[in-house]
Design a protein that fits this description.
The protein is an all-alpha fold and 100 residues long. It contains three helices and no strands.
Length: 100
């Protein structure tokens, strides 16, 4: 009888541990989705601001905003877009008289 109780307790422990691990995995996926959504929103906002400044701002403002877009892509861990915008920033800053 003791053996049966111990066996049930052990099985319960492992079942609970497995369930806890699955919940942790689900929570991580949800956090990752939310993180991706936030990063996407940050990038979208930086791009919108850049386009507004590009239409009516001076060359210095445009240079600075290009840097903000590059940083947004860095935060989103999008290396290709980050590299692309760093080049854009460099070109725009050079045009503004601020070589980097």
């Amino acid at each position: 009888m003791k053996f049966l109780i111990v066996l049930v307790m052990c099985l319960s422990f492992f079942a609970c541990k497995e369930l806890e691990d699955k919940v942790d995995q689900m929570e991580k996926k949800e956090v990752d989705k939310l993180d991706m959504k936030i990063n996407s929103q940050v990038v979208d906002e930086a791009l919108k601001e850049f386009e507004i400044v590009k239409k009516g701002g001076d060359k210095m403002e445009i240079c600075v905003r290009a840097g903000f877009v590059a940083e947004a892509y860095l935060q989103a861990k999008d290396e290709a877009k980050y590299t692309e915008w760093k080049k854009t920033e460099k070109d725009l800053c050079k045009a503004a008289g601020m070589p980097q």
